[in-house]
Amino acid sequence: MIEVYTAPTPNGWKISIMLEECGLPYRTHWVDIGKGEQFAPEFLAISPNNRIPAIVDSDPVDGGVPVSVFETGAILLYLADKTGQFIPADLRGRTQVLEWLAWQIAGLGPMLGQHGHFALYAPERLPYPTERYRHETLRLYGVLDRRLTGREYIAADEYTIADIACWPWVRTWKAQGVPLADFPAVQAWYDRLKLRDGLRRGVALGADRVRRRPQDDAEAARTLFGFHKDQA
Predict the structure, then answer these.
(1) Which of 55, 155, 164, 222 is the most buried (most CB within 10 A)?
(2) 18: closest CA among 205, 209, 198, 206?
């Protein structure tokens, strides 16, 4: 059994998608990040960076004591290695997957996160950071579009954790105002993958818990972003 500590966000969906795709049994523990539950000592014991998601595997492959894992890239790789799924066994294929997984966790996720913050949630609309992160968001979409041109999947020749890592962030395209039609290879990849049953189940997890406008909740805004709703 995998214990999953998560919230309905792009990073949280990466792990629920992976678990559904792998067919691993898991139990969900919701962490209300708007209420600051990510700072609780019990959660920090498994996720010292106070970020969701994190997992605890009570049945690790070495048969030893439970293993806790934090950070989405590490969790995806751990689950791929545990199950032998969604990562190639050969050197070159595995290396490609690791490259694009690193690209997502170092680039696509953080840049889209910053763009989303300044464009959607910041109490004051600041042109410079908004445009700075929008430019970088569109650049990264261009990188992904070139990579996917003539390809079914991001890395190797199969569906892998690189696709699982990127898809939930691309899913935010409409809210972030990204002109997806300008990136036809990304759009085709996105539309193909959203037909997968495991992905659909994973991204549906916690749909009723999504906080649509956290900036309208003073306590949530202060916890998530460090400001009050009415801060000028």
Answers:
(1) 164
(2) 198
CA distances from 230 to 33, 55, 115, 223, 224 (A): 20, 36, 21, 14, 15
Estimate to the nearest angstrom the gap between the alpha carbon of 151 and the chain centroid: 22
Q: How far apart are CA 30 and CA 18, in angstroms?
A: 17
Give the rounded distance of the alpha carbon of 128 from its chain centre: 26
Cα 159 to Cα 17, 141, 165, distances in angstroms: 13, 19, 11
Contact (Cβ atoms closer than 8 angstroms) between residue 104 and residue 140: no
Q: What is the pLDDT of residue 218?
A: 60
57 sits in which H/E element: strand 54-57
Residues 205, 199 contacting (CB under 8 angstroms): no
CATH: 3.40.720.10, 3.30.1490.480, 1.20.1050.10, 3.10.290.10. Which one for 91-194? 1.20.1050.10
Q: What is the pLDDT of residues 100-128, one digit of tens each?
A: 999 999 999 999 999 999 999 888 889 99
